[in-house]
Design goal:
17 strands; Aspartate Aminotransferase, domain 1; 2 domains; four-stranded antiparallel beta sheet; globular; 13 helices; 426 residues; Aspartate Aminotransferase, domain 2
């Protein structure tokens, strides 16, 4: 498509957009009495308008039924989390039995590492990407120390080549092969939070299994953003937060994937709690743990239904639209944003360097942009003028036009505000 950096062209794209009506299903903050241009769905998605109804249903049941709501609410609380498994399975490419929702992301990664990080003998190393999201760095280092190893010896970081912004797949696969039978676990973010690069999860998982390692993925920036086929890729485990592209609310519950080949095992290392025990016998209070036959065996406590309610509300929208349609719009709107950035770059005495891959197969909704010659004052100008974006030191802004609620007109208007912000300093 031949893009144009004009309001008329952007509005034409919006009229042709099959998902344009979904914009009205979300609540936008306002700056100067105008709805913001929202680029931070990669940090916190907007609130779906139906979320309050789902929460209020539980509040009403709690008021009217009290403890009986566990079994007699319209959506009984004791199995509330099970309602999320099927829609989530479609989003992450899994069987419903392989998906569960519990706790929060880093908690779940720690719990999953109880099962999948089992160092012994010479096989004790973990491969991760350099400058992973800090929470993952802290988690991995603490797990290594817990098992009695020095992080400097046990952690192998995948690195970008000097002067390059992207990880090269051939370098990743070479590192995996070199670590070989010393590797116990590969744990990488499916989409790098900083540069927005999508990793080849299928190839990396295969390479990890070839050397006898477990392979897991932090999908915080991937779930609800890119096409995933966790079951067919033979991924061992994965976890993701729900509050970014899946719009479930701040700090909300995390989804987990555990491949079905690990289900039904009583002797597998796992921290256990009563919500992971056999559902039919759960309230008999037996002294021995009988695991659920699916991913729910990793559950610990009864579901936090007030937290799960807005997640379920958002998943209703995903069911209506489907990932295929979201990805199609994502590709077009990100390409248009990329075009607008290049056009504005021509009009101002500045240099934008997009450090996210230009290949659509290697990126999702996010563009990370170096603003050479610009400082934090430009970011502050954007925020004051209704563009909610994300700043990363030293001079990177991350732009994530979530396809559910961002419009092509937003992309054009952002370009004009960005231009004015740069020219206003001249």
């Amino acid at each position: 498509m031949n893009f144009e950096n004009t309001l008329d062209f952007a509005q034409k794209l919006d009229k042709e957009d099959k998902l344009n009506a979904y914009r009205d299903k979300f609540i936008f903050p306002k700056v100067n009495s105008k709805e913001v241009i929202y680029f931070t769905g990669n940090s916190l998605g907007l609130q779906p308008k139906n979320a309050a109804d789902y929460v209020n249903d539980i509040m009403k049941d709690w008021a009217e039924l009290a403890v009986e709501g566990h079994f007699y609410a319209e959506k009984p609380w004791w199995d509330y989390h099970e309602r999320l498994a099927e829609p989530l399975a479609k989003i992450v490419g899994a069987k419903p039995s392989e998906v569960t929702v519990m706790n929060t992301l880093t908690v779940n990664l720690h719990l999953l590492m109880v099962t999948f990080y089992r160092p012994h003998g010479k096989r004790f190393k973990i491969i991760c990407e350099e400058k992973a999201f800090p929470s993952d760095q802290y988690m991995i280092k603490s797990q290594v120390r817990f098992h009695g190893y020095d992080p400097n010896d046990a952690i192998v970081e995948l690195k970008k080549r000097e002067g390059e912004h992207h990880f090269r797949k051939e370098d990743i696969l070479k590192t995996i092969e070199e670590v070989g039978d010393e590797c116990a676990l590969i744990l990488i973010g499916g989409v790098n939070y900083y540069n927005g690069q999508v990793f080849d999860m299928k190839a990396i998982t295969e390479a990890g299994h070839d050397i006898g390692a477990y392979v897991g993925w932090d999908l915080a920036h991937a779930a609800g953003n890119i096409k995933l086929d966790l079951h067919d890729w033979n991924v061992d485990f994965a976890a993701w937060c729900s509050y970014k592209y899946m719009n479930s609310g701040p700090g909300n519950a995390s989804g987990c994937f555990i491949h079905e080949r690990f289900h039904g095992l009583k002797d597998i290392p796992r921290f256990e709690g009563w919500w992971g025990t056999n559902k039919d016998d759960r309230f008999l209070m037996k002294p021995e743990f009988e695991p659920m036959p699916d991913a729910d065996a990793w559950q610990l406590s009864n579901a936090p239904v007030l937290a799960l309610a807005p997640y379920l509300a958002s998943l209703q929208l995903f069911q209506e639209v489907g990932m295929e349609a979201l990805i199609a719009k994502r590709n077009l709107i990100v390409a248009y944003l990329e075009f607008v950035l290049h056009e504005i770059d021509k009009e101002v005495d500045s240099t934008f360097e997009i450090i996210t891959p230009s290949n659509q197969e290697e990126r999702g909704t996010q563009l990370s942009v170096f603003l050479h010659g610009e400082g934090r004052s430009l970011f502050e100008y954007l925020m004051k003028n209704g563009v909610i974006t994300d700043w990363r030191e030293p001079n990177v802004i991350r732009l994530a036009p979530a396809p559910f609620y961002c419009s092509f007109e937003d992309m054009f208007n952002f370009g004009q505000i960005l231009k004015q912000g740069i020219l206003s300093k001249a």
